[in-house]
Amino acid sequence: MTRRSSILGAILDLFGSARKPAARPSKAVRVAPGAAVHGDGPGRSGTTATIEVIPPAPGGLRISYAPEHDGNADAGEIVWTWVPYVERDGRGKDRPVLVIARESAERVYAVKLTSRSHDGDRDFLAIGAGPWDAQGRESWVDVDQVYSVHVAGLRREAAALDLDRFTRVAALLHQRYGWEIAG
């Protein structure tokens, strides 16, 4: 094997896991659980890093609503964690995310919130204001990006989204990704 084909093979191996499903294009690149992310602190690096993931396949996720104000990240709760920027260049910021389902004993699936207006953008759903934002600003849920959040990477339990607003988010995620909604 030549050096050139060896390098090409390594590049293809590296990007092979980043292929996007043809049926559901996404900006996300799957990062292996435990992969290092630039930066320090909970949620920013190592095995507790918050990582953007390719959304699970249709039927591969069951969205549920089960908030309990107990310090654990439960579906339906808004918690704070460090979230990487879409450029995946090591930058990011501490922000609220809505927990939508449990991934494992140590990780949950979440979608991020933003206070920047996205009216009319199909990738965002307006959910109004709530106690997760100390300034009382309106919020939008970004349904285009899905994150795997380690429980040790959470900053705080901010609030539980009410069932009506969570149901609207779940319906949009079901429509977009084909995920089940727990009854």
From TrEMBL:
GO molecular function: DNA binding
Coiled coil regions in record: none
Alphabetically ordered keywords of this record: Toxin-antitoxin system
Family annotation (Pfam families): PemK_toxin
Family (UniProt): Belongs to the PemK/MazF family.
Protein name, entry field: PemK-like protein
Lineage of the species this protein comes from: Bacteria, Bacillati, Actinomycetota, Actinomycetes, Micrococcales
Keyword 4Fe-4S (UniProt): no
Gene3D superfamilies named among the record's database cross-references: 2.30.30.110
